[in-house]
Amino acid sequence: MATYELASAKGGKAGASAILTIATGGAGNPPSLPANLRGLRPFSLVSGIAPKITQQPANSSVNVGATVTFSVLATGTDPISYQWRKNGASISGRTTQTLTLSNVQMSDAGTYSVIVKNNAGQVTSANAALNINAAPQITTQPESIYEKPAATVRFSAAATGSPTPTYQWQFNGANLAGATSASLTLNSVQQAQEGTYVLVARNSSGQAVSEPAVLLLSRSGGTVTFANRDTASGIDAPVFDADGVTRLSGTSFLAQMYAGLSPDVLSPVGPAVPFRVGIASGYWLGEPQSTRFVTRVAAGAQAFVQTRVWESAKGKTFEEAAAAGSKLGGSETLVLTT
């Protein structure tokens, strides 16, 4: 028979310890347990203090391309290990006290947490949200429209971005009151509404401007094709800035046809239009219909025609821009049969 003594942490008199003695039953006999210990289930002794999080990871909101760091502070007996998670799933190789994400993209948005663990236990942090801000991008461009007067027309466009962008339609560079949705409907359109329409999408990260769309209405009278590039007729006459090298691009400049019965009396015909962008820079926007109706000239008669170009920021018309000191340009005056 053998005996085992377990010293209790609690004693009676000062300096004394309570002793529990368990005696074995000898060869072939089970140990004899005190009655109050019978039915005790197996258990293991654990040393150390389980982790406790003292500082949770914080929410973060950053722009695309930024670097973001999540961190956690915890107490407990070393060694302590960490495992970061995204949307509840472990992130491979991310096992330190901090989680750093570089050049974040929209796909990195989500909730992040960390499991903190040691030999005495484990604890999971609160979720920290990562919101990725992205400047708007136009995903659907508006299309130009050629219609009869008094018709109902509709421009539409779309944009992405985070936060969700707001919309503002502009006509010839000026905001249209109340036009703050992704589509713009104009009822019973008249000549005064001919011109260039764009959609501006904005959020806290920036803004994007759609490609310009032109509204052109049909009229009676002689017609002239308003284009500085036409493959069928061999016309290729891009417009350059003052340096003679840079092609005009986008809405910074406007082009408009002037025509009349005399080279000394030319009047604007149709709306002013912006220029194309990218590889088509230098050519003004002719869609949806490059035909212009010269109402002062009968069909089949001769008309004097010129194209004039100016900076849109200086004015809505050639004359207004000239008075404001705009850069100006003009083609030769041509004699055409309408």
Describe this protein's structure.
By secondary structure, this protein is mainly beta. 2% of the residues lie in helices and 45% in strands. It is built from one helix and 30 strands. It has one helix at residues 318-323; strands spanning 3-7, 19-23, 52-55, 60-63, 68-71, 73-75, 81-86, 89-90, 98-101, 110-118, 121-124, 128-140, 145-147, 153-156, 158-162, 166-171, 174-175, 183-186, 195-203, 206-209, 213-217, 222-225, 229-230, 235-236, 253-262, 265-273, 291-294, 302-311, 328-330, 334-337. The strands form nine sheets. Strands 4, 7, 8, 10, 11, 12 and 15 form a seven-stranded mixed β-sheet that branches. β16 (166-171) and β17 (174-175) form a beta hairpin. The protein is elongated. The N and C termini lie far apart (126 Å).
Largest sheet: 7 strands, mixed
Helix content: under 10%
Q: What proportion strand? A: over 45%
Number of helices: 1
Short description:
With 338 residues, the protein is mainly beta. It has one helix at 318-323, and strands at 3-7, 19-23, 52-55, 60-63, 68-71, 73-75, 81-86, 89-90, 98-101, 110-118, 121-124, 128-140, 145-147, 153-156, 158-162, 166-171, 174-175, 183-186, 195-203, 206-209, 213-217, 222-225, 229-230, 235-236, 253-262, 265-273, 291-294, 302-311, 328-330, 334-337.
